[in-house]
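Input (structure):
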């Protein structure tokens, strides 16, 4: 799982997994980099995991920061990585800030989809495994209020 670092979302609990049942990488907003992708390659190719889930969630602070264009230390560079998702929903109704819950949700869902799709573009190993039917990659969103998980 490539989950968010948010303490309100524990991927193992959200997906009814116990300790040792899942490889979990956690980073703000489900971003992927070479270290995360290498970890996913290890989990699937070396250790035999059969699926990669990118679980986003409602009310994501990283997404809110990206929408509001927060500028603060290393956070500034990190939040720029959400720009494709922000731009994809640029023409949404309502105010374009983190107070617009529908907007934040759209950006979060778009970010999960983009992250999940990018994994096979950025990794020949993951792409090959998907093409051979050895693994599946899926995005999901967890609603913090209800606990409900919706597959994207």
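Output (sequence):
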């Amino acid at each position: 799982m490539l989950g968010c670092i948010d303490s309100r979302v524990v991927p193992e609990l959200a997906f009814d997994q116990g300790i040792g049942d899942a490889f979990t990488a956690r980073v703000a907003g489900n971003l992927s980099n070479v270290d995360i992708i290498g970890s996913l390659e290890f989990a699937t190719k070396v250790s035999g995991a059969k699926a990669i889930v990118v679980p986003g969630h409602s009310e994501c602070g990283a997404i809110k920061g990206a929408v509001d264009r927060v500028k603060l230390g290393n956070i500034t560079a990190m939040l720029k990585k959400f720009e494709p998702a922000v731009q994809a929903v640029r023409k949404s109704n309502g105010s374009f800030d983190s107070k617009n819950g529908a907007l934040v949700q759209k950006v979060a869902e778009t970010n999960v989809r983009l992250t999940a799709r990018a994994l096979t573009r950025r990794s020949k190993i993951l792409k090959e495994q998907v093409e051979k039917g050895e693994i599946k990659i899926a995005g999901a969103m967890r609603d913090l209020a209800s606990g409900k998980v919706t597959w994207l």
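Notes: Residues 43 and 49 are 6 Å apart (CA to CA). Strands lie at 2-3, 25-26, 51-57, 136-142, 149-151.
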